[in-house]
Amino acid sequence: MKVLHVLTISGLLLVSSLVVAEHGSSPADGFRKTAAEYEQYASKAVKKATSTQGEDVGRYLELSSVYREMAQIKYGAAKLADQGRWNDITWERYHQLESRRDQLLGQLDWSQTRKQVHKHKQAGGGFKAAAKDYESKARQAHDDAQRSSGPAKHMYSELAGIYQAMANIKHQAADAVNKGKDFDWSKYHELEFRRDKVKSQLNHATTR
Hints:
Elements: H1 2-23, H2 29-50, H3 55-82, H4 92-107, H5 110-116, H6 125-147, H7 150-178, H8 186-207
Helix pairs in contact: 2-3, 3-4, 6-7, 7-8
């Protein structure tokens, strides 16, 4: 009887693993994707440092270190999210690194940095494109809410609101860039955090 019990538990764990693999239900996929992108930026910054002279060499090397630490924070957040420990995820150090990254990017040759290190577009064009993408996702989530019922309906509605709020922030960031002003991303990152949590809850609710 004990052997049968162990085999039953093992079977359930295997099935759960297969469901996760098939549906990509990890709640931290977004964190891991961003971390991987930061690692790519870090590598590109090192390559740029080898072909640069003067003070910019040090700036590119520091930029690489900043991106790598940001990546590690995202990976750490992913592990905590996988364990359902959302309240243990903190972003204070992450925001400090973002500020330093922006300072370094401002000191470096912006046109070259834009092409080889970062994905920002001139005059806020990248932010505008991201805003349109979020608006499209907001509409899709709204439509999904209309087709759903119970907890899923509520979660899709919340997700639609989150995406729209993220779109609004991207529009505001584009305007700030066009005016040469700094921009505070703290609210945006709070929304990213909440979006990933809601998507995780939705994924579990719709794959059961």
